[in-house]
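[Discussion] Sanity-checking designs against the backbone

I'm trying to build intuition for which residues belong where. Below is a structure token string of 233 positions. I'd appreciate it if someone posts a full sequence so I can compare it with mine line by line.
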């Protein structure tokens, strides 16, 4: 690894990307949060850090300068502005994510299955929720019954993810409501200081809730695509 390298590490069902600053730190789009600078250990989380090769890229100084210029940004989007988009832009000035492109290619499934290329939320869900392998297997299977088995396996895994996201959304909403009630009660008791403190606890939950709701929408979109195809077969 060297200054300006595009680094990546496995997160199980996907890869996380960042830029080597050359001083033991890495700038990366922390999943679902903001662009941050952290230690190699924090970035790796116990996994092996790999270097993505480039045939053509800009100088190490420019790469790191670009990365540093976006520190603190909070505009993460799974499909349009993810950690790989960020690292690729730092290296070349071009905004691309091979993870999203590869999933989109796999889920086209011959240009026919599931009605062609998925809508963006479904593409995101296919990669992040670990079902692209089932869709790729369905693409290459010749036996219709085998195709259906792969799609049913994908649906089962998505159902678990949907339940997890729905539970998280409900819990976050309840916690936010609780802090709002606390703030209102504090105001009724003429304790504006406590009301401000309660609302301060609420604000970080808003972003978390938005992220969970987006993830729930992604899973639901992909389920709908697969359910439609199963009904047609």
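Best answer:
Here's mine. Compare freely.
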């Amino acid at each position: 690894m060297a200054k300006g390298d595009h680094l990546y590490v496995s997160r199980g069902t996907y890869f996380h990307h960042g830029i080597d600053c050359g001083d033991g730190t890495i700038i990366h789009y922390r999943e679902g949060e903001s662009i941050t600078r952290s230690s190699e250990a924090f970035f790796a989380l116990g996994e092996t850090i790999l270097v993505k090769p480039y045939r053509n890229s800009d100088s190490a100084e420019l790469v790191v300068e670009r990365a540093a210029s976006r520190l603190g940004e909070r505009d993460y989007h799974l499909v349009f502005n993810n950690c790989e988009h960020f690292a690729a832009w730092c290296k070349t000035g071009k905004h691309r994510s091979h993870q999203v492109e590869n999933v989109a290619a796999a889920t086209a499934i011959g240009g026919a299955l599931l009605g062609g290329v998925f809508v963006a939320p479904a593409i995101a869900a296919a990669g992040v929720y670990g079902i692209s392998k089932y869709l790729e297997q369905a693409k290459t299977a010749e036996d219709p019954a085998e195709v259906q088995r792969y799609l049913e396996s994908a649906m089962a895994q998505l159902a678990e993810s949907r339940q997890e996201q729905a539970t998280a959304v409900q819990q976050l909403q309840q916690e936010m409501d609780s802090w709002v009630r606390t703030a209102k009660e504090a105001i009724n008791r003429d304790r504006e200081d406590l009301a401000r403190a309660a609302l301060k606890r609420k604000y970080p939950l808003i972003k978390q809730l938005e992220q969970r709701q987006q993830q729930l929408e992604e899973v639901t979109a992909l389920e709908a695509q697969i359910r439609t195809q199963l009904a047609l077969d």
